Amino acid sequence: MTLPDHAPDGGAGAALHHRALERLYAAAPVNRLFNSRLEITGDGAARIHFTIDERVYHAAGAAHGTVYFKMLDDAAFYAANTRITDRFLLTTSFNLHFTKPVKSGEVIAEGRWISGRKRVLVGESRLTDAEGDEIGRGTGTFMRSRIPLSSLPGYADPA
Q: Which parts of the sequence belong to the Thioesterase domain (predicted)?
């Protein structure tokens, strides 16, 4: 699939890119470890649904911080990667803030692109628990890699 560097929201190219990013997320081996699903909600926006259970607990019986990082990073990353259609982005830095522990249930990670269009992009994300309370937030910096998206398993159209 060859798309322009950025396909504006609403265009057929953008929709193809968004579905391809969702397939890419689903195909990543690390995501077999989590009960999660990516939904690209528009240009510069991503939502990931996670289910938290005791498999991801730390010793005190709540979700470990690595899970918070995974959820926040993925949401901001995929929101930013909606803006780049030819290359895979790499996380170069990520700051996160834990607001509240979570023990179980669905967590929604909402990510959005903030700035950057060419080489470096910035995204932010927010986690909410099943009651709608914020449990964490973060900001990431993502850099365009040399890896073509079209070369990655899952990104190419399965048809």
A: 61-134
